[in-house]
Specification:
By secondary structure, this protein is mainly β. The protein contains one helix and 29 strands. The radius of gyration is 24 Å and the shape is globular.
Length: 450
C-alpha cells in the first residue's frame, strides 16, 4: 500500500514541517527480525536510536511470498504490549503473495520503543490451504520501487517521517511437504525480493514530491496544521483524529465530505462483519460493485456518529480487518465510489448497517488461594466487562466445567468450595452484545489453587 505514510504524521507535537531525512544504516544499525513458530511469524524491530529519541510513530512492510502451494490471506495481530493510539495493518495481494503494511502512531506519551530499543510488534498468521507449501517472509522497502528493507518513524518532536534502512535482516522460509511432516523453518540472507522492481539511487536525496500528500490530515488539538502539495499520482488517505485523551483504538474522524452523489448509481455493497472468538479484530467483507474505483468504510461506536474508518482505493479488494476497542459495540456501513473525468468522486448508496460487539480483553492477574474449606479467587478488573465466568478442573490440561457466573463487571473476587474437582481454575470476562447475547473474552492461563 502506497499511502500509509500519511499516518506517520499524527504526533500531537507536530510543530514544524521538516523534509524527509534518510538515515544511513551504518549510523543506526536498525534491525528487523522475523521469527517463525509453526505457521506464525513473530515480527520485532530493534532501533538503537530509541535510547535517545522517543519514537511515537512507525511504518514498515513485510513481504509474504508463496514459492509453492496455496495460501489464503494472512492475518496480523498486534502485541497487547504495544503502546500506540493507532494500530493499523493493511494486507494486500500482489503477484507473488501478500504485502503486510503496518503503521503505529501516537502522541508524545505513547512511546513505541523502550529504552532498550527492542519492540515486539505483532504476529503474522499464515493460512496455507494445502499440506504441501513453501512460503517466505522478509522485510520490504516502504515504497514499491525500492528493494532495500526500510522503515519510517516519527519522534515526539513531530518532524516528518525519518527513513531508515533495516540491516542484517533475513528471509524466513516455512516449508511443508506432506500431511505427516511438521513445517521446516529456515532462514537466509536478505536479497532483493519480488515486491521490488528497482533499487533506489544511493546518491539521490528524496525530494518533497516523494512525500505523500497530507492535505487531508486532521490537525491535532492546539497544533498548527501542515499542508503540502500532493506528489504526482498520489492521493492522501484520510487520517485518524488525535484527541487529548484517545483510546488505543479510537476511530479515524470523517474529515472529507463527498464531492457529489449520483442517484442513478443504484448499486450498493452487500457487507458482512465478523470477529474471531475472543478477538477485537473486526473482519469486514463485501461484494464488489461493477464500475467502482474504490470503497469507503464508516464506523460508529455505540450510539455515536459515523466516522470515516478506511478508504479502499483498490477496486478488486473486498475485505478489511479493523482493530477496534475491546468490549465495545460498533455499527459499520460501506459505499462505493467512482472517479469522474474532472477528478471528483461520485458516491453510490450506503450498504445496510451491520452491528457487532467486540470481545473483552483477557482476564489477568488471576489468583487462587486456599483458605480452610474455600478457595478465594481474585483478578484484575476487565474494562467494560459486564460479568465473569469461573471454570474449574482437577487437572491443569483437563476438561473444565463452569462453576460460577458473576453478573457484574465490578466484581473481581469470589469464593468457591475446595474439593478434588476445584484444583485448577480459569476465568474469563464477558460483555452484553446488542442482540442480547454474551460475547466472551479469552480465558486466563490455568491457575492452581495454593
Amino acid at each position: 500500500m502506497k499511502k500509509w505514510i500519511s499516518y506517520m504524521l499524527l504526533s500531537s507535537l507536530l510543530v514544524t514541517a521538516l523534509p524527509v531525512s534518510p538515515v544511513r544504516a551504518a549510523e543506526t544499525s536498525c534491525t528487523g527480525k522475523l521469527a517463525a513458530d509453526g505457521n506464525n511469524i513473530n515480527v520485532s524491530l530493534s532501533f538503537p536510536q530509541a535510547a535517545s529519541e522517543n519514537i511515537t510513530s512507525l511504518h514498515f512492510r513485510v513481504n509474504v511470498s508463496i514459492a509453492s502451494g496455496d495460501m489464503k490471506e494472512p492475518g496480523f495481530q498486534f502485541k497487547d504490549s504495544i503502546n500506540s493510539d493507532v494500530k493499523s495493518s493493511e494486507i494486500t495481494k500482489n503477484n507473488n503473495g501478500y504485502i503486510v503494511d503496518v503503521v503505529l502512531s501516537g502522541k508524545k506519551e505513547k512511546i513505541i520503543f523502550p529504552k532498550s530499543g527492542q519492540a515486539d510488534i505483532g504476529t503474522i498468521s499464515l493460512n496455507p490451504s494445502g499440506s504441501t507449501y513453501k512460503i517466505s517472509a522478509s522485510f520490504a522497502g516502504i515504497k514499491d520501487g525500492y528493494t532495500l528493507p526500510s522503515a519510517e518513524y516519527v519522534t515526539d518532536f513531530g518532524q516528518y517521517a525519518q527513513e531508515v534502512q533495516l540491516v542484517n535482516t533475513e528471509i524466513v522460509t516455512i516449508e511443508k511437504t506432506g500431511q505427516q511432516n511438521p513445517p521446516i523453518i529456515s532462514s537466509s540472507s536478505y536479497g532483493p525480493g519480488p515486491v521490488s522492481t528497482k533499487e533506489p539511487d544511493a546518491t539521490a536525496s528524496p525530494s518533497a514530491t516523494n512525500v505523500p500528500s497530507v492535505t487531508d490530515m486532521p490537525v491535532a488539538t492546539d497544533v498548527p496544521s501542515v499542508v503540502n502539495t500532493p506528489a504526482p499520482g498520489t492521493e492522501a488517505s484520510p487520517l485518524p483524529e488525535v484527541s487529548n485523551a484517545p483510546a488505543s483504538t479510537d476511530m479515524p474522524a470523517s474529515t472529507n465530505t463527498p464531492d457529489s452523489t449520483d442517484s442513478s448509481w443504484e448499486q450498493k455493497p452487500s457487507m458482512s462483519v465478523s470477529a474471531n472468538k475472543g478477538s477485537r479484530v473486526v473482519k469486514l467483507k463485501w461484494e464488489a460493485i461493477d464500475g467502482a474505483d474504490g470503497y469507503i468504510i464508516y464506523s460508529a461506536k455505540g450510539t455515536g456518529k459515523y466516522k470515516k474508518l478506511k478508504t479502499i482505493t483498490q477496486p478488486d479488494k473486498t475485505s478489511y480487518n479493523a482493530n477496534m476497542a475491546y468490549a465495545s459495540s460498533y455499527s459499520f456501513r460501506i459505499r462505493a465510489f467512482k472517479t469522474s473525468e474532472d477528478g471528483n468522486r461520485v458516491f453510490g448508496k450506503y450498504s445496510k448497517t451491520k452491528k457487532i460487539t467486540t470481545a473483552p480483553a483477557r482476564t489477568k492477574n488471576v489468583k487462587a488461594k486456599v483458605s480452610g474449606s474455600k478457595v478465594n479467587l481474585s483478578w484484575k478488573k476487565v474494562k467494560n466487562a459486564n460479568g465473569y465466568q469461573v471454570f474449574a478442573s482437577n487437572k491443569k490440561n483437563g476438561s473444565y466445567s463452569r462453576i460460577k457466573i458473576l453478573r457484574k463487571g465490578s466484581v473481581i473476587k469470589t469464593a468457591v468450595n475446595k474439593n478434588k474437582k476445584n484444583r485448577y481454575f480459569k476465568v474469563r470476562a464477558y460483555v452484553n452484545s446488542t442482540d442480547g447475547k454474551h460475547v466472551y473474552g479469552k480465558f486466563c492461563t490455568a491457575i492452581k489453587a495454593k
